[in-house]
Amino acid sequence: MLTMMAASIHHLCIMRRAGFLKHFFGFKYCSSKRASTKSAAAKRESSITKDQYENIERKPFYKLLEERKEQAERSVLVSCPSNTSEKRFLKHMSRHGDINNCFFYESFGTYAVVEFSKRDGVLSVFESASIPNFPHEAAVPFKSRLLSLKTNNSGDLASSQPSVKVLSQTAIPIDELVRRLSKKDSIDQQLLLLTNILQLTDENIRLRFLVCSLLRDIAASYFPECVVRPFGSSVNGFGKLGCDLDMFLDLDGISGISQEKTGSSYSLEYQLKRTSTERVATQSILSVIGECVDQFGPGCVGIQKILNARCPLVRFSHQPSGFQCDLTANNRVAMKSSELLYLYGQLDERVRALVFSVRCWARVQGVTSNIPGAWLTNFTLTMLVVFFLQKRSPPLIPTLDHLQALAGPKDKSIIDGNDCTFVSDLTKVKLQENSDSLEHLLLEFFEFYGNFDFSKLSINIRKGKEQGKPEAAPLHIQNPFQPALNVSKNVNGTQLQRFVSLCQESAWLAQQPEVQSRSDTPWGLAALLAPLDAVGKGKKSKRRRAEAPSARIKGLLESLRTGKASANGGSTS
Ligand code: GTP
Ligand code: MG
Predict the structure, then answer these.
(1) Does residue 542 have a pLDDT over 90?
(2) What residue's CA is closest to ligand 1, atom 14?
(3) What is the DSSP letter of 411?
(4) pTM above 0.90, yes or no
(5) Most buried of 303, 439, 511, 569 (most Cβ within 10 A)?
(6) Is residue 51 assigned to a domain?
(7) Backbone angle region of 445, left / alpha / beta, with phi > 0 → left and psi within -120 to 50 → alpha
(8) 197 within 8 A of 179, measured Cβ to Cβ
(9) In the predicted model, what is the mean pLDDT of the chain?
(10) What is the pLDDT of residue 58?
(11) For the region Disordered, what residue ranges are annotated (predicted)?
């Protein structure tokens, strides 16, 4: 079976990359593009042709981010009444300028993202929009690109029959995912389908950049040159529908203005408030911006200032988009980590498929959680997958040291004294011929970490080698850009042991004939997504600890045999 999968890998290769590139490089949409939730899902599962794939220009990370940012700056977000007519809405909005793209979605009401072809469109909207009067309340007159569509008296914009097709911005429930995976013919195809279903859509990425742009407008009241940049899974290629929106307030554009040599005897500099450390300055900036978001930011609710964290942040919900947002400042290293993961994800399509599948498996098995704590995080899991792929023979992806050796002068990046340099031009990276199938990689991942000596060894993706542990933490993964830091410092012994046990159980389970043979009941990856904890019919964690692992997996096998394996019915997020 493994050989069969290896043979099919080349056929799938184009399809995989195509699916990824399609959403990431953002294909252009026509102005009145309409798509139902169903057709959007179908679109996600489809692939582009080989010709289209070969014509896609592979852009460096920062160029891609710049394009998305610029796109967002030409966009507005409009809350629409439920009976809005799409046709009339577009007609109305196009009075302000040509529309490049428009889509509708639901989040506490119906919203439209309208992207004009020029920024003039946004200015025209600002000129025509009015400040509302609330009969019994007062309002902060802060004008933003979050607007409401009002129906005028003659009913010009609305029709009694809603005609807006909304796109889903959330991940499908796990049981639906399991059902769809089970219909696939191979485990390789299951991993690819899972990635295509769960990954961020083009529209969701647009919305993320738009929210950053709206936040930037608030922060710009104090820092006109600032930029709010998304990082983490919103941009690193591993984001799943429903993942949080990590942003950082970039003030480098301010200090970047260099003193010109004018030949004059004098020059002027700004007087600035001083603080004892950069951390204190970051805390004070975030505190003020957090206050502005709280007081003036329409749709921003539940603001929490978490300023004493290792990386100070302001957390809030952006209701119009439905995103849980984390705003940080002075966080260039995290941006570099995002770029590195993006690059790894682009080098070989199997990287993303494996990361998505492992993350989904980990979520279902309770290895990761939405709640901060001693569990493994998605970031940690991704590092584990990267390291595992570097350790394949031949390696599927290169070490960070190798990527650094390929860097050109423009790639030079020193942040807080740490060398964060690595190549940005993907075409310079030559991969070795590794033909492992995804099925084989998934199984080997579980075997690898099920048997890894975490008690003695530290994981180092810079060298692609395990090393002796420099400190006593249960799990030690060296931060690739800050070698003195452990990215998995939060993980305790219990959670690590749980991960190891689940890897062992999943490795065993994956090799069972019931799981390997195609059938109508969950099989292959779908079977691995049935939570082992749930087996034993509702006798949850307390019972789990009492049972021997083999009893639990035997229970799962039994339920698979009888076709009763059910996922937890919750969402995958
Ligand atoms: P999800 O939000 O879970 O989908 O993944 P994510 O990659 O966005 O992770 P998270 O939101 O927890 O963190 C955002 C980014 O911050 C990550 O992608 C990393 O770049 C960075 N980051 C997170 N945790 C750590 C850590 O422990 N150490 C370091 N150096 N960076 C981290
Ligand atoms: Mg995140």
Answers:
(1) no
(2) 232
(3) G
(4) no
(5) 439
(6) no
(7) alpha
(8) no
(9) 84
(10) 64
(11) 536-573
